[in-house]
Amino acid sequence: MRNTAKLTTAVLAAGALTLGLTACGSDKDSDSGSGSGKNGPLIVAASPVPHAEILTYVKDNLAKDAGLDLQVKEFTDYVLPNTATEDGSVGANYFQNQPYLDDFNKKNGTHIVPVVTVHLEPLGLYSSKVKKADELKSGATVAVPNDTVNEARALKLLDANGIITLKDGAGNDATPKDIAKNPKNLKFKELEAAQTPRSLEDVDAAVINGNYAIESDLKPADDALVLESADDNPYGNFLAVKEGNEDDPRVKKLAKLLTSPEVKKFIEDKYAGSVIASF
After folding, report:
1. Is the pTM of this model over 0.70?
2. Where in the sequence is the signal peptide annotated (predicted)?
3. What are the pLDDT digits (tens) for 124-148?
4. ∠ CA 241-244-248 to the nearest 5 degrees?
């Protein structure tokens, strides 16, 4: 987060969610989620959509035959799944991409590593006020995620579609300060990623992560004004664990199931292009 207000909001949200999870969980769950309880269930932290839905499909249809006791614990932010994986409260997580994880590990001193890439959720620009991106008026306000990687990703999306032009060399930490050309004089409102769908009534457009778009009944393949390309996209979402737990037999079983033909068909049938299998 880049300012005190954002940090305070994140801390309060994290505290509230942690209390809720503590009330619902137990010491037994925590032990079985960690690398030390490899004979117990594998607890996986996941965003509700599509990650938890995909995991629930695996749990209900594939896990038993593979000899895997799988439990799914939903988180609604992009911080707690990694901290819970680091401290062993859960055995794995499934919600993030490589640029985000690299940034998170660097800033937080965590040791989370990817296991297998499962799917891509294309980032999209949405609006309840215009039907085409070129209809955005001069001075329009566009909401973007406020975490480093997803804000840069949002700006790259706008750049790729000719809405803005980024400076040469703008990378995975690009901010509005890295915009070289802004012909519509767009204003950018930085929000926690989960809040971007709710902002649509208050801003002219919003760049929304695929999982939050789907949760909000948006259909990325149909509703986005512009949508991220899947070609050579570095933002595939993967199963991740704390370093050292990659060879946990439960993790290996889950990795195999998540990249099975059955899961690929489930993704294609349920999400119809709004989520794309990466295997």
Report:
1. yes
2. 1-25
3. 999 999 999 999 999 999 999 999 9
4. 70
Residue with tokens 């991106």: 133
- Please, which residues have CB within 8 angstroms of residue 218's CB and are 6 or more apart in sequence? 124, 126, 197, 208, 224
Looking at residue 158, its amino acid is L
Degrees (nearest 5) of the Cα angle 148, 154, 159? 125
Domain boundaries in the chain?
A: 26-122+234-277, 124-227
Residues 6+ apart with CB under 8 A from 30: 88, 89
Give me the CATH topology for the region 26-122+234-277: D-Maltodextrin-Binding Protein; domain 2 (3.40.190)
| C-alpha count within 13 angstroms, C-beta hemisphere, residue 150 | 30
pLDDT bin (cut points 50, 70, 90) of residue 4 is very low
Tell me the CA distances in angstroms from 207 to 156, 188, 241, 256, one per residue in order.
11, 10, 29, 33
Q: Answer whether 58's CB lies under 8 Å from 257's CB.
A: yes
Domains 26-122+234-277 and 124-227 share a fold: yes
Structure tokens of 9?
């909001």
CATH class held by domain 124-227: alpha beta
Output the DSSP codes for 68-81. Answer: --EEEEE-SSSSHH
